[in-house]
Design a protein that fits this description.
The chain is built from 2 helices and 4 strands; from the N terminus they run βαββαβ.
Length: 73
């Protein structure tokens, strides 16, 4: 089953913890907003993806089975 890391852009405050903790999965754009690099998240990186979801102080990140339910879509 594929898993996707999604960003709720309305909740994100741009702290940068996600791309600091998992630069292989998340990068940032010129404004400091997260950009998801690994779609779907490779199985070998699921632990890192779960970690960035856990450390986001705004709870703006989620791991989902489908992109269609994404708050950023």
């Amino acid at each position: 089953m594929d898993r996707y890391l999604t960003v709720d852009r309305g909740a994100c405050a741009g702290h940068g913890l996600c791309y600091g903790a998992a630069p292989e999965i998340v990068d940032c754009d010129d404004q400091g907003d997260p950009i998801i690099l690994a779609e779907p998240v490779p199985a070998a990186m699921l632990g890192q993806a779960e970690h960035v979801v856990d450390i986001c102080p705004e709870r703006a990140l989620a791991l989902q089975e489908s992109l269609q339910a994404s708050p950023s879509a």
